[in-house]
């Protein structure tokens, strides 16, 4: 019994030594407590923090990059405000060739007023379009002046992008961009659909497209190309000699053509044109991510930017129309690219003092109610053109938005004060006699056919002709034919 008692005592003593160590175990380092399977649950606030952060990053990614599906031109046009579609239907397009071996681009133009009077061409500044000058156009036309306004490439309804043939992508980033462009063009499940239809992965087609492919790039034109566009429009429409109305940064776009063709310019009117080529609309708001999405994503945000930098009395509907034109069809990217290609070393005083412009009739219209700094800028412009007539108006830097009627009165008075323009009429070459006989015979057949089968439809033919002339075939650019 004594032996058994000793063993029990020894076991009790060993257990007594072990128990304190078990009690001391929870007091170990915090790292050991986290690995314990019986430790408390993880704080739920950390999960929601990371979840919110992930959702925010995904949202930022989607608003910073274009949609994968994109919007075709037809859908974009049909979603335009009625005023924009009406303005578009009243215009026509002209194809111009910017560079050799490149596809011509289409330039939108709109004209009003009698065709037998003086021709006034309005050239807009960066980020604007002919739509912004519709009140000025109507007021000038009502005063008996022929007015033509154009949308420079990258703006308004003119082409804002062009196709370019490039080599296949290189590197991981290049391949990623290629896949992204393929998704934009063909859809996310294009390759899967090909596998279902043919039972094969379209390797050969993918490799062929990657070796040489066409990409769509925003139009990146500099002052030389813009001047060439202006010259081709004037030549195609037979407008010379012309009275130019250059607003905002339009002088930087037109200066080269004016210097090279002073005999085709009857007069120049500068409307709030700064001594530098920078326009009133700050380009950085269209370039910086997040800010550009906010400005172009909400009408009130864009209207607020315009109120701060350009015009204090712009209507919300006008701001919405400008925002839609800037946002759609790659307009923002084109405007930013063109703004970066401006000639920032342009010297307006040197240009105005050149031999071809010393005796050019000129007028400067300047805002008297904008800022003191802007009034001082107007004094510098007046000093650069001592021969120019200087007058002020009550509008802002985008005067056509809030003082269109006032501008039209000053422009029409200036144009009418000059001697009447003399236009050259080119003599047509005589048509060969045998061809003339064929034309006369065909005309007699058409007249007889119309007399027997379409009697009384003459008015309808006249209407169709006017409609075609107004649209100029440009409606087909959006796949809409002549009706929308």
Give me the Rg, rounded.
Answer: 35 Å
| Gross CATH architecture of the largest domain | 3-Layer(aba) Sandwich
Instruction: Kindly give the count of domains.
Output: 2
Query: Which percent bin holds the helix content?
Result: 40-55%
Helix- and strand-based class?
alpha/beta
Mean pLDDT: 76
CATH topology of the largest domain: Rossmann fold
Q: Specify the overall morphology.
A: globular
Sketch the major β-sheet: 8 strands, mixed
Output the CATH class name of the largest domain. Alpha Beta
Termini Cα gap: 114 Å
Give the number of DSSP strands.
10
Query: How much of the residues is beta strand, in percent?
Result: 5-15%
SS field, number of helical segments: 21
What is the CATH superfamily label of the largest domain?
A: Alpha/Beta hydrolase fold, catalytic domain
Notes on the protein architecture:
The protein is α/β, with parallel strands linked by helices and 484 residues long. It has two domains: 73-158 and 221-416, Alpha/Beta hydrolase fold, catalytic domain (Rossmann fold); 161-218, no CATH class. The protein is 50% helix and 13% strand. The chain contains 21 helices and ten strands. The strands form two sheets. The chain has an eight-stranded mixed β-sheet, with helices on both faces. Helix 6 links the parallel strand 3 (119-123) and strand 4 (146-150). Helix 6 crosses helix 19, helix 12 (291-297) packs across helix 13 and helix 13 crosses helix 14 (316-327). The model is unreliable at 1-8, 13-35, 64-69, 453-476 and 479-484 (pLDDT under 50).
